[in-house]
Fold this protein.
Amino acid sequence: MDPVSLVFSAYLNTVQTTVSNHFNETRNLEITPVVVEYEGTPVSYQHQLWRVRPESVCANYQQNISKFSKCTVKASKLFNALCLELKQSGVEGLRQVQVQNMYCNAAVSFKPIVANIGSAQTLSGLEEARRACNAATVAAMGNSDPQLARERDKACEVYRDLKNQ
């Protein structure tokens, strides 16, 4: 290849790459990962085609439900804050409008996962008796063993006595 053809080829390649990159950026065609520290919590998400991908929000915490819950609540607050801030700042240009719309849509559509994990509540005597009666009833079903029937009757009698107090 002669030098002029090489230079022209390099020039065309540069222009094509620049145009292609600009096209991809303005259309948001590729999945774009984002991590934002919000109120002390790193909130990760991805967006594509000017939409936040809801399944990607806080995906790095999905193995720990309490951290995942905390992160999704923060993400919801983050999307609301970004939408409000971008609306108040008076955006100019197509890209800024697209970013604002993306965060405002996420603020409206994203639903955080709210989970509170703690110790199980202790059962009352009545609730324990009800469960024992139910378990004995299930055990006696379809079984002709008189011992199981007596255990069921005894457990359910205890439940009825507690319930009538």
